[in-house]
C-alpha cells in the first residue's frame, strides 16, 4: 500500500508542480505589483472590516476559519519533516513559497468572492464555482468539486488526526485510539451546529493558540539568542548549497520546503477560497487582501517559530538520502536518538527550556491547530457538496459527509504516520494542480478588482464592487447585495 501511494505521490509532486507553484506566485506578484508588500497596512486594517450576517461571516471570522485550515499539523510536524528530509535550507524555501504565494492567495480568494452564490441561505463559493461561472467550464468545476470532497473529506483529515494522536501519546502516554475517539465526539458536536458554530469556535481558539505558541517560541529563541545569527546563516547557506554538510540534500531542500510550504499555508491549493467566499464584504478585493495576509501569519510567524525552535536547540535529525544506497551514515546531522520525524522534534525543542511542560504544551497546541484544520476541511468538503447538489434541497449528503469524516479521523489517529502523510500529500497535490491551472486561466477579474479597489480608495471611498463597471460578467449576486446595502 505504501509503495503504491508513494508512486502516485512522486507523479503528482514532480518538479512540474514545484515549478508551477513558485512560477505562479512570482507571476502574480509581478502582475499585482507585489501587493503583498504594498498593501500590508491595508491588509491589517481589513482584518476587522465587515460584519457577520445571516448569509455570511465577518472578515475576521473568515480569517480565523482560513487560518484554522492553514495553521495545522503542517506548522509543527510538517516543519520538522521538511528539516529532517531537506535540511535547514528547507525553511528558506517555505518562506519563499509564503512570500510569493501571498499574491496567489489574493487572486484565488478574490475570484471566490466575485463568483460566490447563496445556497440554503448561506454564501458558498470556491474554485468549482469560479471555474464554472468565470471559465464557463462546468465539467472542470464538477471535477474539481469531486477531487475536493475526496481530498478534504477523506485524504487530509487523517494526517491531522494522526499528528494529534501521536503528540498526545508522546506527552501524556494516552493511547491513540482514545485520542481519536475524543476527536470524533468533539468534531460531531461542532459540525452538526453549522457554519456559524464553526466560525465562532475558530474565532476564539485559533488566535489564542497561535499567539501563545509564538510567545513560547520567542522565549526559547531569547534563551539561545547567542546562536540565532548562526542559525539564520545556516538556513540561507543550506538553501543555496553553500553549506557543505547539507550539500547532499540541496535539491530536497527546495522540494520539501515547497511541498511543506504549500501544505501549511495552502496558497494556490484551492482550499482557502471556499472560506473566503463566506465573508460578508462590500468588495471582493477586501477578502483577497485579508487572505493574502493570512499566508504570512501561517508561514512567516507560526512555521518560523517552529523552525527556529528546532534549529536553535539542535533538536532535530537530517537524514542522508544516500544511506539506503550504501552511504556511510544514516544522518547528515544527528541531534536526537530514537525519535520519529514529527511533532516530537518540536516537543524536544521546547523541553530544553521548559522541561516536561514543553511536551504538554506542544501536544495541546497541536490538538487545537490540527483539530481546527479538520473543521475547516469539513467546511471545504461541505461547500463542494453544496456545489454538486445545488438543485437538490436535501441535507442528507451533509450527514453522510459528517459520518465519513468521523470514520476517517478515527482511522487516521491509529494509522501509521508515514502513510497518513503520503495520502494527505496526494490530496494537496491534486487540488493544487487543478486550482493553479484554473486561476491562471481566470486571472483578469481578480486583477481588475484590485485596480478598481485601489482606484476607489484613492477617491476616499469605502470600495463597493459593481462587476459591470469593470467588465466582469456572471457575478450576479453582487447586484442583489448592492441593492440590499442601499436599503
TrEMBL record:
Question: Could you tell me the keywords of this UniProt record?
Answer: Cell membrane, Membrane, Symport, Transmembrane, Transmembrane helix, Transport
Subcellular location per UniProt equals: Cell membrane
Identify the Pfam families for this entry.
Na_Ala_symp
Record flagged with keyword Cell membrane:
yes
Looking at the UniProt entry, the stretches that span the membrane are: 12-30, 67-86, 92-115, 136-156, 176-195, 204-225, 231-254, 295-316, 360-380, 396-414, 420-442
Transferase: is it a keyword of this entry? no
Annotated InterPro entries: Na/Ala_symport
Q: What is its main location?
A: membrane
Membrane topology annotation:
Multi-pass membrane protein
Assigned protein family: Belongs to the alanine or glycine:cation symporter (AGCS) (TC 2.A.25) family.
Query: Could you identify this protein by its name?
Result: Alanine/glycine:cation symporter family protein
> Lineage of this protein's species?
Bacteria, Pseudomonadati, Bacteroidota, Flavobacteriia, Flavobacteriales
Amino acid at each position: 500500500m505504501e509503495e503504491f501511494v508513494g508512486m502516485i505521490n512522486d507523479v503528482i509532486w514532480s518538479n512540474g508542480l514545484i515549478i508551477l507553484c513558485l512560477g505562479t506566485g512570482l507571476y502574480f506578484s509581478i502582475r499585482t505589483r507585489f501587493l503583498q508588500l504594498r498593501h500590508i497596512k491595508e491588509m491589517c486594517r481589513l482584518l476587522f472590516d465587515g460584519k457577520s450576517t445571516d448569509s455570511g461571516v465577518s472578515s475576521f471570522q473568515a480569517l480565523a476559519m482560513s487560518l484554522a485550515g492553514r495553521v495545522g499539523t503542517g506548522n509543527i510536524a510538517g516543519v520538522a519533516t521538511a528539516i529532517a528530509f531537506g535540511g535547514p535550507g528547507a525553511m528558506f524555501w517555505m518562506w519563499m513559497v509564503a512570500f510569493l504565494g501571498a499574491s496567489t492567495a489574493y487572486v484565488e480568494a478574490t475570484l471566490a468572492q466575485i463568483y460566490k452564490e447563496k445556497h440554503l441561505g448561506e454564501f458558498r463559493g470556491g474554485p468549482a464555482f469560479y471555474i464554472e461561472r468565470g471559465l464557463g467550464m462546468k465539467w472542470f468545476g464538477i471535477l474539481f468539486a469531486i477531487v475536493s470532497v475526496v481530498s478534504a473529506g477523506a485524504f487530509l483529515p487523517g494526517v491531522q488526526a494522526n499528528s494529534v494522536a501521536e503528540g498526545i501519546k508522546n506527552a501524556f502516554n494516552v493511547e491513540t485510539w482514545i485520542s481519536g475517539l475524543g476527536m470524533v465526539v468533539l468534531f460531531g458536536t461542532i459540525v452538526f451546529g453549522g457554519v456559524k458554530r464553526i466560525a465562532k469556535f475558530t474565532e476564539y481558539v485559533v488566535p489564542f493558540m497561535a499567539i501563545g505558541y509564538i510567545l513560547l517560541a520567542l522565549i526559547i529563541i531569547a534563551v539561545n539568542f547567542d546562536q540565532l545569527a548562526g542559525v539564520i546563516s545556516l538556513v540561507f547557506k543550506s538553501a543555496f548549497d553553500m553549506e557543505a554538510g547539507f550539500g547532499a540534500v540541496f535539491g530536497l531542500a527546495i522540494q520539501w520546503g515547497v511541498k511543506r510550504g504549500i501544505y501549511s499555508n495552502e496558497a494556490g491549493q484551492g482550499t482557502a477560497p471556499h472560506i473566503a467566499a463566506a465573508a460578508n464584504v462590500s468588495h471582493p478585493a477586501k477578502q483577497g487582501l485579508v487572505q493574502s495576509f493570512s499566508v504570512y501569519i501561517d508561514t512567516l510567524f507560526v512555521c518560523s517559530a517552529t523552525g527556529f525552535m528546532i534549529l536553535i536547540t539542535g533538536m532535530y535529525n537530517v537524514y542522508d538520502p544516500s544511506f539506503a544506497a550504501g552511504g556511510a551514515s544514516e544522518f547528515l546531522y544527528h541531534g536526537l536518538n530514537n525519535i520519529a520525524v514529527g511533532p516530537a522534534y518540536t516537543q524536544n525543542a521546547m523541553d530544553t527550556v521548559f522541561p516536561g511542560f514543553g511536551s504538554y504544551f506542544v501536544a495541546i497546541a497541536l490538538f487545537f491547530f490540527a483539530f481546527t484544520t479538520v473543521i475547516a476541511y469539513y467546511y471545504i468538503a461541505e461547500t463542494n457538496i453544496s456545489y454538486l447538489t445545488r438543485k437538490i434541497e436535501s441535507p442528507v449528503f451533509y450527514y453522510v459527509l459528517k459520518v465519513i469524516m468521523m470514520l476517517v479521523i478515527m482511522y487516521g489517529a491509529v494509522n501509521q504516520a508515514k502513510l497518513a502523510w503520503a495520502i494527505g500529500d496526494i490530496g494537496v497535490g491534486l487540488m493544487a494542480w487543478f486550482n493553479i491551472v484554473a486561476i491562471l486561466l481566470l486571472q483578469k477579474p481578480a486583477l481588475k478588482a484590485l485596480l478598481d479597489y485601489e482606484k476607489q480608495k484613492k477617491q476616499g471611498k469605502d470600495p463597493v464592487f459593481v462587476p459591470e463597471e469593470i467588465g466582469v460578467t456572471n457575478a450576479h449576486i453582487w447586484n442583489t447585495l448592492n441593492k440590499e446595502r442601499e436599503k
